[in-house]
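Would you be willing to look carefully at the protein I have copied below?

:::
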Amino acid sequence: MRPLLRQLKPTNGIAHSVHSGLLLVLPAATFLLVRLNFVQLALSVIVLSKWRMFAVRPRFWASNVRANAVDLMVGLSIVLFMSHSGSLVIQLVWAVLYAGWLLFIKPASGSAGVASQAALGQLAALSALYLTWAGGPILGITVLAGLFCFLAARHFLDSFDEPYARMLSYTWGYFGAALAWVLSHWMLFYHTVSQTTLLLSTLGYGLAGLYYLDHNDRLSKGARRQVFIIMLVVVLVVLAFSDWGDKVV
């Protein structure tokens, strides 16, 4: 499958330019739809753009959805970010960032590129979740947070041919869901970023960094100590400056 996909990629300058131009239609369309206050239609366009996931036999649908989940998480999140901003300039910035994702980050195939995709996907999805549904049912927030963590971890681990990718992904998803459930009783925010998003992003990036270094035989004692110290400091600062009163903020 992969060799075939390589052959289908644009190889000359004209084809590459046409391909890039077609990719830019998606962020431009979502920007216009959000400006016209057709947010639900913009979300539908993002989902419909992945129609090729189901253009195969049904037994491949699950794996295709999992492979495209991070891209969907980013696209849908950016539409939600646009819809929560009344500024034309900020909405345009989000559209440009989405174009950058489609043109430069999403096509990356190396382990570092895939790690960036997973990290950005989890960050975007969790941020959008708490931005749009902070007052929703705790069960719904818990399930979605765990699902986003699972999908991001699976996307990351699959690039390393990890034999325990499923188990590790479920573990990270369970941890994300558990942390989301506990912290949903307080629902603390730092400006527009929730405490849950900040903690899961910090811990996720740290663990992913350790795994990446270990996989490439670059995990020295000094690097391990440095990553753990950074993770610990961030977590302690977040916990120390949080209001743990019996209320929702």
